[in-house]
Amino acid sequence: MDIEGLSVEPRSEDRPAAVVLAAGMGKRMKSATPKVLHRVMGRTLLAYVLNAVQYLSPARILVVVGHGAEEVETALGRPPGVEYVVQTEQLGTGHAVWSARPALEGWRGPVVILPGDAPLVSPQTMLDFLAAHRALGAPLSVLTAELDDPASYGRVVRDRAGWLERIVEFRDADEDTRAIREVNAGVYAAEPGALFGALEAVRPANVQSEYYLTDVVGILRSRGDLVSAVTGPDPREIQGVNDRADLARCQETLKLRINEAWLRAGVTFHDPYSTYVEPSVRLERDCVLGPGVVLSGRTRVGEGACIGPYAVLADVEVGPGARVAPHAVLSGVAVPAGADARTAPPPYAGYPARTRAASPLAQAGGGRLRAAPPRRRIV
User: Fold this and answer.
1) pLDDT above 70 for 9
2) Please, what's the largest Cα pairwise distance for the chain?
3) How far is Cα 355 from Cα 278, in angstroms, rounded to an integer?
4) Residue 131 DSSP SS3
5) Residues in CB range of 297: below 8 A, 6 or more apart
6) What pTM was computed for the model?
7) Which domains does the chain carry?
8) Taking a C-beta distance cutoff of 8 angstroms, is the pair 190, 111 a contact?
9) Mean pLDDT score of the chain, rounded to an integer?
10) How many angstroms separate the CA atoms of 45 and 68, rounded?
């Protein structure tokens, strides 16, 4: 579901509250844009996280903002049920969650915590994780993954019974701990009393001099509580974004995930590895996409339509059985059902919008391209 369709029902203590951490600067992105506003497949990182969260039917969604707070709020807007919490200083993940405490005063239901830069976590994984947290009955649960190359992720240390004993950040881990392949995915479910009670005891005694949310695990264990670790089914889902290389890897994973879903829905891709289809695009069965096609925005492709190789369409309506020429570049127009643009020459990207109706591509097939109604874009 697109973020603009997000809505929540009235508050209920039987449903969770969600806290999304979106306050970080993202220094390794080397960008003036806040990290959570960088885009993959046409959407911001934050929009993917919020779309996954809304499948939990949360009673409240708190977005913790800090660096670039005004920019983040402007980009996201005010979807129903979303509240903003300001972290005035960026002193770590524990401090970010602590910033949400006043807004959750008196809350009794579970609190689900997610990073705002993890676009690959699926709605099903979130649903299964929350169900496991409720079934295990521990005051805190942590989503984990087993990686062949755990790199710089925080390592998960379990006790002999399998309960989570502590999480050790990579910078603070010794060689034996770094050899552990199970890592923290950065997603938590907690009972608010235990969560905030433990956060009160967190101290910045680490290399970064930050308040680590992961320290809550050790604090709860020292008080005699159990902490559950729930291993997710697909380790690729935990991949966050720290730099542009991570961003590119996330986009490749999402691109193939989207294309595979359309393949199973009856759409033909001549080369799914080179074809780019944003999640806001809608395709009908038996349509055919050539290699290198790029479909973005509110593009719709009707049943049996054929999009030629390397065509680029943004906010375009392609009617059933229509043909779009190879290398065509279209934006904000409609191609009627059965229209044939196969004889069109290469792209006309240089034509100004007001003259596109008279361009060679518009004239191909009888010049029947017409303006499509304006459409709202997602966040």
Assistant:
1) no
2) 77
3) 27
4) helix
5) 42, 278, 280, 281, 314, 315, 375, 377
6) 0.84
7) 3-238 (3.90.550.10), 265-371 (2.160.10.10)
8) yes
9) 88
10) 15
